[in-house]
Write a structure and sequence with these properties.
The protein is an all-beta fold and 288 residues long. The protein has a single domain, classed as Neuraminidase (6 Propeller). It contains one helix and 24 strands. β7 and β8 form a beta hairpin.
């Protein structure tokens, strides 16, 4: 077990986000949102841009039948790496652009939007059903971010960053409906703001703290029990990967940093990894 982090890709991403382990291809997907890039990192050290769009790409996940599902621009799309073809499924009706997303245990793809914080409450959270329908789930969102599910699949965790909380919902696996919203983790006094999250096999919730130089782990009751420090300020998201799901991959960003900040943080925008001694949950694919 070690909280020491290493740089695995010195990618200098403007806004690295949404790391997602692809179990079928034993590689890590991640995006540079502002560059419109989807990357695939392999354990041999190779990092390749497998898709570049002329619009921001907020989130990516593998599809059960082989392609990728995307939350990009203001909607959802499917992409075939084999054919190099992107098929747009539809747009959403709130927010400026798509942001973070993830698949639930039933294979639905969830992603939210964001909007300038001077216009709070005008973004949303959406669910892409396996049949391609786009279902609005939450309105009155400002900056939709981290998503995750408990090991038993009965609880969904969610971050709307400006609220500086992690909220929990009762989750109906069969229908995808969420009820009984409550605050599980209050981060208003913590350094930084919550961004992406992941859940480990023991039910611990790992939260990337943007402008907080860290990833923080909370137990299933919302009690802080671990902090992993990073050499960069803008820590954006995290996920477990590797053949044993025992490696924690962490994305970061350099957008918005000053020249002095960048001089002090030469690895801003890098993809990091550590081995914290716990394992993650098996990743979910989109079953569309």
């Amino acid at each position: 077990m070690s909280d020491e982090v290493e740089v695995v890709v010195d990618g200098r991403a403007m806004l690295g986000e949404c790391p997602m382990w692809d179990a079928d291809r034993q590689s890590l997907l991640w995006v540079d949102i502002l560059a419109g890039e989807v990357h695939r990192y392999r354990p041999d050290g190779d990092d390749s841009v497998v898709l570049k769009l002329d619009v921001p790409v907020g989130a990516v996940a593998p599809c059960a039948d082989g392609g990728l599902v995307l939350a990009a621009d203001r909607g959802f799309a499917l992409h075939s790496e084999e054919r190099g073809q992107t098929t747009w499924l539809g747009a959403v009706d709130r927010g400026e652009r798509m942001n973070d997303g993830k698949c639930d245990p039933a294979g639905r793809f969830w992603a939210g939007t964001m909007i300038d914080e001077s216009s709070p409450g005008k973004a949303g959270l959406y669910r892409l059903e396996p049949d391609g329908r786009i279902v609005p789930v939450l309105t009155s969102v400002t900056l939709s971010n981290g998503l995750g599910w408990s090991p038993d699949g009965h609880t969904m965790y969610y971050i709307d960053t400006p609220a500086r909380t992690v909220d929990a919902f009762d989750f109906d696996l069969e229908t995808g409906s969420i009820t009984n919203r409550r605050v599980l983790v209050d981060l208003r006094e913590a350094e930084g703001r919550p961004d992406g999250l992941t859940v480990d096999s023991a039910g611990g919730i790992w939260i990337a703290m943007a402008r907080g130089w860290s990833v923080r782990r909370y137990d299933a009751h919302g009690v802080l029990d671990r902090v992993i420090r990073l050499p960069v300020q803008k820590v954006t998201s995290c996920t477990f990967g590797g053949s044993g799901l025992d490696e924690l991959y962490i994305t970061s960003a350099r957008s918005g940093l000053t020249s002095d900040d960048l001089a002090e943080q030469p690895y801003a925008g890098a993809l990091f990894r550590c081995r914290p001694g716990v394992t993650g949950l098996s990743p979910h694919s989109y079953r569309g």
